[in-house]
Amino acid sequence: EMGLLERPPAHRDVQDVVVHVEPHPLFARRGPDLIRELPVTMTQAALGARVRFGGLEGSLEVAVPPGTQPGETLTVKGGGLPDLRGGRGNLHVAVRVTIPTRLSAEQRNLLEALSREIDERPGEEGKSVDGGSRRAGGKRRAKRPPRPILDRMKDLLK
């Protein structure tokens, strides 16, 4: 009679190996794909920029398109881990927009002027509302709030 851990005679030389992977401070792993946050300034998000950051095996660069919203995910093809079936996974970069906590008087004046220029108005619960995007005929369409980043990452990796 076989015990729970014994194998049939044809598989006596087969061994089970259990590997525990410690969490990385910057990267989350989903198969061969990696996920990380990338802090960008509000001006980089608004105007667009090429941003350098540390990848798993060295420095990488990603293009942040103009108008990038907080929580948007950018993909670096082949920036993930080697895939056992060949090739490499991707690196998914979740944009985290950093807002300055201290402004000089000149910076504050510039931001206030920009706010007036784009017609921002205070909205509900202290949020700022830009009135949504314009449709043909000048009608405004309400913007939907962005989905939480973890939900978007899960959808991306399905």
Write structural notes for this entry.
- A 4-stranded mixed beta sheet has the order 1-2-6-5. Strands 3-4 form a two-stranded antiparallel ribbon.
- With 158 residues, the chain is of the alpha+beta class.
- It has helices spanning 42-47, 105-117, 149-156, and strands at residues 28-30, 33-41, 49-55, 58-64, 73-76, 91-98, 121-122, 128-129, 133-134, 140-141.
- Helices cover 17% and strands 29% of the residues.
Q: Which features does this protein show?
A:
elongated, 3 helices, 158 residues, alpha+beta
Count the DSSP helices. 3
Q: Tell me the Rg in angstroms.
A: 24 Å
Overall mean pLDDT stands at 78
Largest sheet: 4 strands, mixed
Order of helices and strands: EEHEEEEHEEEEH
Beta strand %: 25-35%
Q: What overall form do the CA principal axes indicate?
A: elongated
Structural class: alpha+beta
Number of strands: 10
- The percent of residues in helical segments reads 10-25%
Strand and helix layout:
Blueprint: E1 28-30, E2 33-41, H1 42-47, E3 49-55, E4 58-64, E5 73-76, E6 91-98, H2 105-117, E7 121-122, E8 128-129, E9 133-134, E10 140-141, H3 149-156
Parallel strand pairs: 2-6
Antiparallel strand pairs: 1-2, 3-4, 5-6, 7-8, 9-10
